[in-house]
Each structure stands twice: as C-alpha cells, then as structure tokens.
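Batch job 17 of 40 flagged for manual review because the log was empty.
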Amino acid sequence: MEFASGIAETVSVRLASYAAQEVCLAWGAQHELRKLNKTLLAIKLVLEDAEKKQLQNPLITHWLGNLKDVCNDAEDVLDEFEFRKLRLKVQRSVKGKFLSLQGCEALEELPNGIGNLINLRLLFLTTQQMYLPKGVFKRLTLLQTLLISSCKNLKSLGEEMEYLTNLRQLWIGMCGNLESLPPNMKNLTAFHTLAIADCKKLELMRSGEGISGLRSFSVAESNLEALPNWLQESVDTLQSMLIGDCDNLTALPDWLQNLTLLEQLVIGECPKLSALPQGMHCLTALRVLMISGCPELRKRCKRETGEDWSKIKHVPKRVLDDSDDD
C-alpha cells in the first residue's frame, strides 16, 4: 500500500514547482500554494512516525487511511492545475513560436489545437499515446526543431513528417517502444541534425531511408550493431558524429573514410569496438577525435605504438579516455 507520507511528499514537491510558475501568479494563488506546501511538509513528518506504529494500533491505521484520501484529493487539485497550465501554454502559443509539453508524462492525448499553431518554430512533445494523431504536423510548415522525449508507449511518428519542409533538427529520447523513423523524409531539404538516445527498439538499420544532407548525427544507448547505411547519403555534408553507449557495436564501416567534411568524431562506451577502419587517414577535415570507454580501441590508438596510431596521428585534437594524447 502506498503510504500517505509518500503521497504528501509528492504533493509538496509538485506544489513547490507550481508556486514558481506563471499560472499560479495569473490566478493569484501563489501565496496559498506555498502555505499548503508548508502544511503538507509538516504533516509528512508526523505521518512517517505514525506509519511505523500502525501495526500496533488499528486506530492509527484508520487515521492514516483518511489522511491518504485527503492527500489524494490534493493531488487531484494539482492535476487540475496541470491541465489549466497546459491549456494556458497552448493558448499563449497561438501567436508564439515555441511550445513545450516536456515532462507531461501523464498526458494521455496531445491537445487537438497543436496542428493549428502554424507559427511554431520549436515543439517539444511528451505523450502517453502509441501513435501521434493524424493532422498534427500537416500545417506546421514553419517548424524548425522537433523534440520528442519520454514517450514510453510511442511506436511510430506517423507518415506526416514530410510536411515539415522547414524542419532542421529532430531530437528523440527515452522512447523505449519506438520502432521506426518516419518514412518519406527525403522531402525535408532543410534537415541537418538527427539525435537519438535511449530508444532501444528503434530499428535504425531498417528505417531512415531518404534522410540526406545531415550535418550532425548522434546515437546513444542503442542496440545498434553497425551504423546505418543511409548515413552514406550525407557523405558530402556530415560534420559531427557522436556514438555512445552502443554495447553491441563491433565495427565502424569502411565507408566512414568518405565523410570528407567530418570535423568531430566522439565514441564513448562501446566496449566491443576494437579497431578503426582502414581509411581513417582519409578524414583530412577531422579536427577532434574523442574515445572513451572502449578499452581495446584505446590500446590500438596508443601514441606511436598502437596498431591504429597511423590512422589518427593527423588529427590535431585527440582525447583518449578523458586524457589528452598530446
């Protein structure tokens, strides 16, 4: 059973957050929220002691049950605050360029009006939905940055991404059930940055076709065994690449040498990666190489004596396991 003191603590933390936000000021409720927060914190201290004694006294058990109901009622009130705050945020974004629903993990459905915010430049989404509703992206033709985070149920981003003709950056994180990237991304001619983290079901090898012109690509906490071949569509544009926490990655592709504009390569926590491809010396634009958490690769890159030293000695800045090689 969830203890009343735990609920009280949750409510007090949420109150402290809400008290600092403009929605509270708009309602003239900031002072009252702070008073309620102090009261709940005091109750919590009493409850912690009472919970330890409830097994010996059935009256205390009954009392705790009643207080739990009170605390749950307080949480319901805060849920109403959250809803109104979200509504205010959407309403104020009609003329604005920024909308963030970050952290709204309890949000069961995205607000219907998002698709009408045609002036949006940046959109940050969190939702419980398995699929993004149709029509969300069709009119957001000015959107430049899209961030999707903590959508634990999301399986697909749908097929409407192609309408985001001005999209430049796509960031996807902590979407554990996401299975594929959107199709038809070849129409995104302004697109240049793709970052993916902690989306372990995402099949990057089987999705992503059509993505081209990338300047920055990063992938972290992935089950990737190899880099996706569609990255070759960006050989003439890619300038930065980050690969981190990819436990199953065993090798970098030979076509890596064709990334003639690559300036920065960061590789971290890829323990099975044991060697660099033969053509690394062809990356004449490479200015920064960072390698950490790759013990075998680190040995091969050891100055003068490592088997891969000749492949990287032309790089001006080398950081191997958090220490400068030079």
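Reviewer: the log was empty due to a logging misconfiguration, but the result itself is present. The two ends are 58 Å apart (CA to CA). Unflagging and moving on to job 18.
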